Amino acid sequence: xxxxxxxxxxxxxxxxxxxxxxxxxxxxxxxxxxxxxxxxxxxxxxxxxxxxxxxxxxxxxxxxxxxxxxxxxxxxxxxxxxxxxxxxxxxxxxxxxxxxxxxxxxxxxxxxxxxxxxxxxxxxxxxxxxxxxxxxxxxxxxxxxxxxxxxxxxxxxxxxxxxxxxxxxxxxxxxxxxxxxxxxxxxxxxxxxxxxxxxxxxxxxxxxxxxxxxxxxxxxxxxxxxxxxxxxxxxxxxxxxxxxxxxxxxxxxxxxxxxxxxxxxxxxxxxxxxxxxxxxxxxxxxxxxxxxxxxxxxxxxx
Length: 302
Ligand code: SF4
Known about the structure:
about 15% strand; two-stranded antiparallel sheet; 7-stranded parallel sheet; alpha/beta; 10 helices; TIM Barrel
């Protein structure tokens, strides 16, 4: 039987022969959707503090890496690492600033990879050229926040970019030895299951290497926190999420690496749904559902 899905851990073990841990970092960047360039409100689901423990703590990058490594060594017995510039829009600066921030990884021989998360409208040839320079020594991942391939949905969550921006960003990054991934949110309140699977069908033939799933959750400090408090939003329950994520997996290629099947959030900020933080239970249920359907990632992809 084919593997159920291609997990990031398995991919990294194949590449490096051992466990590799991703270090989540705040490179000190801002975001055009928060600084007033496009908007001050940000994406309506967003509060960066909820998912990165170093976000805006003013801890120097060198220190962030040291602290995260120590923790991962203790907790996961990891000896190799990927530096993940996760917070805000991690390509939103002049290329000289990006270079200075990213190249801190050269001070740590244990770091084998560089991952950068950004908006699809915050990348250009120069920035891609910079990332490409790192591919000589490092595995480089570029993660684009797409969330949905439906432009009305993108507008409704105040993303201020379009699906076409994403297509261009993918095209620009192709053939550069950079692993490209898309972030997708399942459970947007104005999307049906069919809308979400339509995103799967649209992106499934793009030259991506990976995908990262998020279940829409509400965090304190986000615009949607207010709508949720006023009971104006319905969120997915666990079985609905499992049904949709499994159906999505069936539609995308089996060679795509699944960077994450479910996102968690800091309990300090998470309002709902709280089941997302029972990560192991959710992962077991997803595997169970794939087996129950006698299915796997890519089963319906052609
Ligand atoms: S989700 Fe990303 S693009 Fe949207 S406001 Fe937050 S940092 Fe900016």
